[in-house]
Amino acid sequence: MSILQTITSPQELSKLSDEQMVRLSAEIREFLIANVSKTGGHMGPNLGVVELTLAIHRVFDSPRDSIIFDTGHQSYVHKLVTGRQDFSTLRQTGGIAGYPDRAESVHDIVESSHASSSLSWADGISKARVLAGEADRCVVPVIGDGALTGGMAWEALNNIAADKDRRVIIVVNDNGRSYAPTVGGLAEQLGRLRRNFLDKVRTHRTYENVMDGTKQRLQNGGPMGQMVYRSLHAAKKGAKDFWAPQGLFEDLGMKYIGPVDGHDQRALEEALTDAKNYGGPVIVHALTEKGKGYAPARADENDQFHAVGVIDPETGEPVHRGGARSWTSVFEEEITAIADEREDIVGLTGAMMIPVGLRSFAQKHPERVFDVGIAEQHALTSAAGLAYGGLHPVVAIYATFLNRAFDQLLMDVALHRAGVTVVLDRAGVTGPDGPSHHGMWDLSLLQIVPGLQIAAPRDSTRLREELREAVAVDDAPTVLRFSKGSVNGEIDALERLHDGVDVLWRTAADAEHGAEAEQPYAHDVLIVSVGPMAELSLDVAQRLADQGISATVVDPRWVLPVPDSVVSLAARHRTVICIEDGVKAGGVGSRIRQSMREAGVDTGLNEVGLPVEFLAHGTRGEVLARVGLTAQKITQDVVGQVLGTKVPYARPLPGETFPTGQIPSLRTRKA
Questions:
Q1: Which CATH class is domain 501-643?
Q2: Mean pLDDT over residues 361-369, rounded?
Q3: What is its EC number (predicted)?
Q4: How far is Cα 156 from Cα 127, in angstroms, rounded to an integer?
Q5: pLDDT of 108-145, one tens digit each?
Q6: Which residues are catalytic?
Q7: 327-481 has which CATH code?
Q8: Bind-site residues for thiamine diphosphate
Q9: Rounded to whole angstroms, how far apart are CA atoms 441 and 671?
Q10: Which of 460, 461, 458, 455 is nearest to 442 (CA)?
């Protein structure tokens, strides 16, 4: 039996010798490579935190001591030593989550995997411990993968540093990378810091007591004493900055230990023990290697296997190479072409140059693409400034991370009518990364931003044309959103209406009975399809046709503001459904309903979208099926609406009682 198999709780780690700990680290890396290669997941970050995670659990007592992972994708080793060693269904329906999950273990605290939040959690938890009379309990946030570039982390540091008696040990997992190498002045400053023997002296309480006592006596000694104190303090600071430079954290009043070799088990435990014994806020700076122990990961210059699909564990090569293009790759190609044509186009992203498709743009025009680090708020306001300077910024981020920059989009971009295009990758249900990564909130959030325009392409051709339309707008913010994964097949329109709305389907008119001429409505059902839901919408239309219910399917292309033709078409149909992959509360369907009411159109509308819930991980198809976004379920509901058995009822035909529960179908009427 391997050592790993004997570990069912963190407390059992204390029984192991140094030699056994080395063996355990090797076993964990072998386990991660063998298992994550089968399911996909965040391999590189976890290979890099093996010794660091083990050291934390050897020095601290979880769950009495609170260990917080930021970002949560570096928690696989933590899961293994807290009794979760079945990785066969990692990130799959019913399997363990790819991030901390309170439902799985009392050792998990923060489920959200949005970076840079751990220190705020630590600030709040440590304050609660003090108020509860449990000041001896430690709080250990592990912040890494570039998360210190986020401004929220520094807001929290400012508060933590102000209280010298809270036991907060901040572990900086410094691998020099987020997805790609970490950028900015912070990364450069961290690189200049080095571990020194003075750390042990400076984190000893006796040292602190002597220094505080000396300071107080000299400052109380009149002008001469104060002058001596200032001179000695300046000399001490100069000597310390030479031997152990740490100005970045000292300016906040924080004790700093490091850097420590993040793969030296004994050195890590020694540093963490010193920090624990100090009794106040301390930063422990650990230098780690992303992808440690796995040659294919270390050789990957892009992101050192930050996240992988199913791969061959020997070579690191993907087992299945998808033939279809991804939405991101289509965007990458088109934005690069646009940048070639227009010198005013600039790109911004938050530590995601490769994942959001700005790499080619950056390679061809490096002076016009800016990676601002994990700082979405800053990215949006910086974009507003760039627009004021006469440029057209394109801010490319994951849809789930737009939530963090809503205020900046509203007050800095929209209020100033800035020509900024926001491109949201991974919009809608993303699948295996779970609740914090579904990009399902954007359509509801963005509805209330004055002047903002939202495009949702259904295929690659529409993505290209809508991106070009977006960057042509210079007096208002525009948003382009698309899904994760492979782009849908091309769906050509039957007709493009005067305001850009595409008609994708019309049920054929019954010429023999003069259906179009005699019926008061064009068709029974108007289906408004949002972006990638076009294939599903057409499937529903075909199923309705098979049951004698006629339909029109339209793709607005630009879902905000609501096109006039959509409202006009709604007036000529008996009922309307809007199918979207965002939260249906306050989403596109809700906005169409409001526009209909403002225009005096009383056709019933049913919003078909995602519930206001945090959706568990699984494949995109599985998640959509769980919430009823399938052709079969939607068709059943629409049939009920047309027959008058389900609200909202379809408007009755002339001469029919409404509702009766027995309204004849189109097929019956034809007979």
A1: alpha beta
A2: 98
A3: 2.2.1.7
A4: 12
A5: 999 988 899 999 999 999 999 999 999 999 999 999 87
A6: 290, 376, 404
A7: 3.40.50.970
A8: 73, 113-115, 146-147, 175, 294, 376
A9: 46
A10: 455
